[in-house]
Amino acid sequence: MAAGQRRRADGRPGRALLTGGGAARATGPGGGARSLEGHLAVVLDGAQPLLPRRLPLLDALDLVLAEDVVAGGPLPRFDGSSMDGYAVLAADVATAAEDAPAVLDVVGDVPAGAAHVPALRPGTAVRVMTGAPVPQAEDPTRTPDVAVVQVEWTDAAQTGPPPARVAVGRPVGPGRNVRRAGEDVETGERVLRAGERLSPRHLGLLASLGRADVLVRPRPRVVVLSTGSEVVEPGEELSPGQIHDSNSTALVAACREAGALARRVRAVEDDPGRLLAVLRAELPTADLVLTTGGVSAGAYEVVKEALAAGGAVSFVRVAMQPGGPQGEGRLRDDAGREVRVLTLPGNPVSAYVSFEAFVRPWLRRVLGEEELQRPVVEAVVDRGWTSVPGKRQLYRVRLERDADGTAHVGAIGGPGSHLVADLVTATALAVVPEEVTDVRPGDRLSCMLLERGGPPPSDPAADPRPGAGA
Ligand SMILES: Nc1nc2c(c(=O)[nH]1)N[C@H]1C(S)=C(S)[C@@H](COP(=O)(O)OP(=O)(O)OC[C@H]3O[C@@H](n4cnc5c(N)ncnc54)[C@H](O)[C@@H]3O)O[C@H]1N2
Ligand code: MOO
After folding, report:
1. What are the MoaB/Mog domain coordinates in residue numbering (predicted)?
2. pLDDT tens digit string along 368-411?
3. Which protein residue's CA is at the shortest distance from atom 32 of ligand 1?
């Protein structure tokens, strides 16, 4: 766009940000390139949650429930005491006072977990502990109402064996300090619905109901594979011209943070035959393969060379920056099972931004999540930057809020797709529309918050397998 024709960012509401719907093959204004939404729609096409699996409760944290949970019994399980004290018939202590206590015979001692509980006759009390079953009235037709007097309201010692008699210095109403069976959950009640995401509180409820496992949408298995003859395993010495592989670490971590079971494979050199052999070995245990590098316009584009043949993977340009060169397709493992393949560009920032734009939404769809996108806030630009005409720019920014809560962003570093330290400083990606070339202070932009979504799942088989790659 020529000088003077600058288009400013206006943060127009309603502008599609990164939605997954729309025309799957929509092209953007970037010279025939596919729009970001168009490519996302292609990536999400056919993505659906994996078949439900029954998992032990602690493996199901953060996963989406695939069954309605109906209580097989009540909660609380039985009428129990909520205080350490004495179970009494409420009628026996109705007129009790400090100077005229009700004196009762102690006929039993019931700790938590006791199976046998003596019944209460008029004039008697049973010592009970918090969580212990509360005695019934021996004659519920005449004296139905049982209550618990906390030990502090009696003359009894808090420790040691129960006394023969206890003096109660205050009245307690019927049912006082008694947790009724079923007051929290009734037998047959539906307590959780399919589609809910399991938090620690959900898991606690399931355990309370006696469940050891639960039917959930399982985590997709992701294999991340960097390519490039210059790429060397972190920790290894570099020869001239070599760099350490950062993409596979960053992407595996991003996949795990998004809820997947992800693992790295040692980087594969620029040898299409070798890449195909590594892929063949990895496909049987993957739901998604992510590659980085080897997809642009150079002489040694290993991913393109290996996967374009037969049309299994299509390579396109997406009208976005960074993250222009993209590929997507499906490969079959030896058993004929289809595995999704997304090939991301090699520049580290491009690979990461591509993850946010395409891979994370795919993972969330497969995990059964409804919301596929990061939270988005509108922010006022404090320090501006420029953008390429015709491309949706996802620019690294740091987002801060002022005293009245307004979000502000400033550019972090330059636009280079190799600037990985700036990526750490950034806390959001500002979304610059295709027609905007010049983002200035005061402009308003939608920004995707790059927040951490929860603890990564542990994966014992998580690190590079010996023998794969260079
Ligand atoms: N003539 C053209 N050249 C390039 C174009 C283009 O349109 N025409 N597009 C540029 C854009 S945009 C991108 S993005 C990159 C994408 O390239 P590739 O996906 O083919 O990636 P490579 O060439 O293999 O690597 C790019 C860059 O990133 C470094 N890299 C690669 N893998 C890793 C890794 N695992 N960890 C860290 N760094 C990695 C690599 O050394 C290169 O510096 O193409 C542009 N070129
Ligand atoms: O699109 Mo490349 O991803 O600009 O650096």
Report:
1. 223-365
2. 999 999 999 999 999 999 999 999 999 999 999 999 999 999 99
3. 346
Please report, for the chain, the start and end positions of each structural domain, with discontinuous segments joined by +.
Answer: 1-49+218-470, 54-72+190-216, 80-179
What is the architecture, at CATH level 2, of domain 80-179? Beta Complex (2.170)
Neighbouring C-alpha atoms within 13 Å toward the C-beta of 470: 19
State the ligand closest to the CA atom of 345. 1
Both tokens assigned to 70: 């109906």
- Each residue of 125-173: pLDDT tens digit? 999 999 999 999 999 898 889 999 999 999 999 999 999 999 999 999 9
What's the topology of domain 54-72+190-216? Molybdopterin biosynthesis moea protein, domain 2 (3.90.105)
- Half-sphere exposure of residue 428: CA atoms within 13 angstroms, side-chain side: 26
Rounded Cα distance, 370 and 66, in Å: 14
Mutate to test the pocket of ligand 1, among 296, 391, 423 (most ligand atoms within 8 A of CB): 296
Could you give phi then psi for residue 287, rounded to 5 degrees? -100, -25
**C-alpha span between 258 and 247 (Å, rounded):** 16
Residue range 258-264: mean pLDDT, rounded: 97
Alpha carbon of 72 to ligand 1 centroid (Å) = 57
Counting ligand 1 atoms within 8 A of each CB, the residue from 265, 347, 388, 419 with the most, and so the one to mutate, is 347
Contacts of 90 (CB under 8 A, 6+ apart): 145, 146, 147, 171, 172, 173, 174, 175, 176
Ligand minimally distant from the alpha carbon of residue 415: 2
What is the band of 10 on the pLDDT scale with cuts at 50, 70, 90?
Answer: low
Give residues with Cβ within 8 angstroms of 268, minimum separation 6: 225, 226, 227, 274, 275, 278, 302, 468, 469, 470
Q: What is the 446 CA–ligand 1 centroid distance (Å)? A: 27
Residue 293 Cβ < 6 Å to ligand 2:
no
Cβ–ligand 1 distance for 230 under 6 Å, the answer: yes
Distance 429 CA to ligand 2 centre (A): 15
Question: What is the distance in A from the centroid of ligand 2 to the CA of 322?
Answer: 4
Ligand 1 atom closest to the Cα of residue 230 is 41
CB of 81 shorter than 6 A to ligand 1: no
Query: What's the rounded Cα separation, in Å, for the pair 306 and 274?
Result: 9
CATH of region 1-49+218-470: 3.40.980.10
Q: What are phi and psi of 235, to 5 degrees?
A: 95, -20
Q: Do domains 54-72+190-216 and 80-179 have the same CATH topology?
A: no
Tokens for 133, please give them: 């079953």
